[in-house]
Amino acid sequence: MLFSSISFIFVFLPALIILCLLTKKEFHNLILLIASIIFYALGDARYLPVMFGIILINYIGALLIDKFKFRGFILALTVILNLSILCYFKYFNFFIEVINNFRFKDIDSLNIILPLGISFYTFQAMSYITDVYRKEVKVQKNLYKLALYICLFPQLIAGPIVKYHDIYDQIENREIRISKLIYGIKRFIIGLSKKVIIANTLGNVADIVFSQPPDTLTPLISWMGALFYSLQIYFDFSGYSDMVIGLGLIFGFKFLENFNYPYISKSITEFWRRWHISLSSWFKQYVYIPLGGNKNGKFKMVENLIIVFLLTGFWHGANWTFIFWGVYNGFFIIVEKLTGFDKEFKNVFINFIKHFYTIFIFIIGWVIFRAEDLKYAKGYIKNMLFLTTSKPIEITYKLPYYLNTKEIVILIIALLCAAPLFSNILNIQNKIGKICINIWLLGLFIISTMMIAESTYNPFIYFRF
Asked: Is the pTM of this model over 0.90?
């Protein structure tokens, strides 16, 4: 079930809100746990046992860490079990493909379907077991409360990755307040609008462009497709994160922000501080810092960054494009740190050059991320950079085919909303301003639901990770 579906917006969510408002506080955790299991089952009930297995492994592992002295061994064993399950479902066929390509053996791939949200809830589970090991939090002896943390429906399918030390107190102590509920609904509407009105519209254009061979595209159309996809993935995922944060507020939780206008960055280092913050901070806290971070000299820092971004790319999927995309980002971050390019500059011209460089690098990066394989990415990027030795074989569609008035208007809106021009719009205190904002939000909600009802195109990009 998608957040941007009629059944969720008009049936599941209202029923759950009413049920929580009509019941006592002590029943809210149990209600949310049952609702989360139902929510996941409606998506793919076959893999409920996998999620339950992850919950049980980490529940038992944390209890053993809390009780026995050989804590490091138990942590390592629990993490290995978590990663083994994740690797089997997500990477087993990829490893078989690699073995077959090197002609070691001819092994048949298995018919493995990736369970929804496994990358996210596995990382959340490892956050819990590591926090217990570090004694940053107390062990959770109540199984259903731990289960609620791992499979809480707002962030279950596509994150953000909520770390246990950020939320454990809210599981025990929180309450549903009307003021937070209303603010949460408003935040949900903004996220829904970003996803349905902006991301879906831009995604239609990007999909058409990327469905064609690179040698049938002009450089201008190649750049347009890359720009549209860059904006689509931002508004798709940040819109989803806004909906998650809004849903959290509705039910008394406060989730950390997952995006902070990454497209205004002036370096790739800054970009990764603003993009998918929950994943970046997870790798920083549980991989980069334990490896030594930047404390043991530049060579060790470079080594640690290579490991982190190799894992970041691999986390996104079993495809060489994701691995190369991770290494690509890591390369520029290493160069920036070694040269001091990631530092703040007061010179306006230098900042403009830095911003232009950053936009260029991440748009090229998104082409690698979006491409079916590295061969397609190479051909597409060569086309963008005017490096093809001949003219397109046959231009499938000319520019006017892609852009009607609607796409142009949405593109302009997307470019404006990618900057923090309207970041405090929900915090306006002026009475007339509040009325105008509420009318505007109502209009966005009506337009969004109409578009959902009229269109069959409604994917979430990060669902496949």
From this structure: yes
